[in-house]
Amino acid sequence: MGEARLVRFVAAPGSHVAPDVGRKLPGRGLWVAADRASVDIAVRKNLFARAARMTLTPPADLADQVATLLHRRLLAALGLARKAGDLTSGFERVLGAVSSGKAAFLVEAEDGAADGRRKLLAAGRRSSSPPRLIGLFSSEELGLALGGETVIHTAFLAGRGADRWTDDVERISGFRPLFPERWREEP
After folding, report:
1. What does 30-55 look like in DSSP terms, one character per residue?
2. Which contiguous run of DSSP H or E holds residue 33?
3. In this predicted model, what pLDDT tens digit does every residue of 90-136 receive, in sequence order?
């Protein structure tokens, strides 16, 4: 299993375990598979203490902490991608990117209307390179991250930025679904 599917933890002051989703904190890394079940088992069996060969006390909600940190990290990366020109927003521009196969990810607000999403997904299915669907964020969260009031439709254009973003998408998928379950039931 490569690093892309792992979460790094470090021993924090006070004998605690801290998630290091950015993989930059000092100290010896303690690596766990990037999914809720693996982190919960590591907490329950205190595998961190065994791996670090020291007394460590992991918090019971460590998996939730990881999910929250990854969520924030993905939003922050969207903001950086917008500044780098790797994102496009607005229905018509996103439709163009999806139809032409230039979109690696279709990022839809979880509270957006089904009609626009359905049209974009249909265009993606007709595309030579269909984008992956992400529905982790509210329109308000997307708006704050991208500098708009509310954002419903965004496309992360294919390229190096999207490739780097993919690692965090893969990691968060082990902690929460990439889009709401109700979207599967939409016609």
Report:
1. EEEESSHHHHHHHHHTTHHHHHHTS-
2. strand 30-33
3. 999 999 999 999 999 999 999 999 999 999 999 999 988 999 999 99
